[in-house]
Every structure is written in structure tokens, then in C-alpha cells.
């Protein structure tokens, strides 16, 4: 491998910059040139690139967002877009690509592999919804950001004796909501992996908490299960509590990455380049527990990731759900 292209695609995640830095510096360490492709697949189609040097990625680990910008490209879904992207790689002399993102990013990499490129994926998403990996870059920072916001909300909910209903991101997955709910000591947590029984999962825990002397309540709703406004209305109808809705939204994607995200991103960036240097292709770098491993992209995309059963059991025990 002589020249590698690196890009970020899909929703950005804190730690993507640390992964870019790691890819660039590992490349240089191994005598490989590294080119940054801006705006994900959109940039590949349009030849939007920037040469990356040791200095150009200096101080990047602690920065949120992605210096290479990110995008969700509609054009790349069509064969013509994929051919144009492959043509850009040919023009720039890129013989390999490292894509940082989620499942959509990995599917795109497979299309480019069919055009003869060597490709490696790195899981970067706050949703932690990549089946082959127990961890994705950005998840820890997003959890911490959400917890910090919810702690602040709790202060005002307590003062006014209200019920806070907080909508947390996660796309179709409930990992973020579940983890945040446990960390915040929520009254109830709703996740898309379990069809909610509102009476049992939300109203009864609120009633029990009230009987125990509590005067404010915190309900966490994963965006994939229902709108927080609907849930708040149901709570109000059943209990007459004064409810307030907060949709945390994109604040969860911002901020300086935590130590965990910086470290995971740095290892994954290193692994991606190491795999390419060893002649490997069509792999996703992943974590299993504390170990860094890699999977064939097609196999990785076919895998399913369920909710963490232990955490779910603990959440139910602590919220008093029967
Ligand atoms: O995949 C990351 C994510 O933040 C999801 O949690 C959310 O559903 C989605 O992206 C939002 O996408 P956008 O930034 O395009 O609104």
C-alpha cells in the first residue's frame, strides 16, 4: 500500500478526529502517504481532498466533530456515484481507503471494494449500534454529555416537583438511553428493543416512587421508541403530574471526546492501517471486551446486536419494574 485515503461519513461522533490523527500518523510511521477525503462519500465523488501531514493532525485528539467534515451522500447510493468515487481514487492514486462511521459507511466501503480498492471500516457513532463491536467511537462521550445535561435538569425538576421526560438519541437502538438511564438513576427508561407497556414500565414506577416519598421524576425515552411529547402526555393523563419535555438532540454529538473515546479511536486507527499494510481488505476494526479484533465487513453487516441484557435487568430492578 503506497497511499491511503481516510474519510468520515454519516453522523459525526466525538473521537473521529482522534481516529483520523491515528490513521495519518500510523501511515507516516509505516512509510505510507495519507490523503484526507472531505465530506464522506460526497467528497469521494467530487474529488474533495486534502493531503494530511504529521503536523496537520497535531492537537486533534481532543477536538470534537471531524476535521474532514461528514455527510450522508444520496448520489453514492447509485452505481454512477460509486463509479465516480472509484475514478477519484484512481486519479489520486489511492489504493486503499479507511472509512470511519456506521453500517452505512461500511456498506459503501463494500461497493468500493468491488471496484478494486482495499477498504477498512472503523466504527464511529454515538449510537453504539455496530453489531460486531462492543464499542463504537463517540459512545462514551455522548453518554457523559447526556448524563451531565440530565443532572442539571434534575435540579430544576426537583425544585418544581415535576416529571422530566428526556428524549435521547440512538437511532433505532436503545444502548445510549439505557446506559444514560442507569447512570442517572432514572425513574423509567424506554428503549426500542422492548415494546413499552406504559402502565407497567412508566406509570407504576412513578407511582411507587411517589409512594416512597419522591416528588420529582426522570423518564428517559430513546428516540427510536416514541416521541418524548407522546410519553409526557400519557404521564400527565395518568398522573396529573406537571411534565416537561427535553429533546437532548445534537448536543449529544458534540464536545471534546473522553479519554475512553480518544484511546479507542487511536487504537482503531492504528489497527486499520496495520491491517492494510499486511495486505488485508474488507475488514471492520472492532472491540470485543477490551480486545481489538477485526471482522469481514459482509459478516459484520449480517450480525445483530441486542440490548445489553445485564444492564437492562439492572435498570428494571432499580426502577422497580415487576
Ligand atoms: O447516528 C447518529 C445519530 O445522531 C442518531 O442517533 C440520530 O438518529 C441521527 O444520527 C441524527 O442524524 P442527523 O444528524 O442527520 O439529524
Automatic annotation (TrEMBL):
The keyword Thylakoid does not apply. GO terms for biological process: canonical glycolysis; fructose 1,6-bisphosphate metabolic process; fructose 6-phosphate metabolic process. Its main location: cytoplasm. Its EC number is 2.7.1.11. Coiled coil: none annotated. It catalyses: beta-D-fructose 6-phosphate + ATP = beta-D-fructose 1,6-bisphosphate + ADP + H(+). Belongs to the phosphofructokinase type A (PFKA) family. ATP-dependent PFK group I subfamily. Prokaryotic clade 'B1' sub-subfamily. Residues 3-276 form the Phosphofructokinase domain. It comes from Lawsonibacter hominis. This is ATP-dependent 6-phosphofructokinase. GO terms for molecular function: 6-phosphofructokinase activity; AMP binding; ATP binding; fructose-6-phosphate binding; identical protein binding; metal ion binding; monosaccharide binding. Its cofactor is Mg(2+). The active site is at 127 (proton acceptor). ATP binds at residues 11, 72-73, 102-105. ADP binds at residues 21-25, 154.
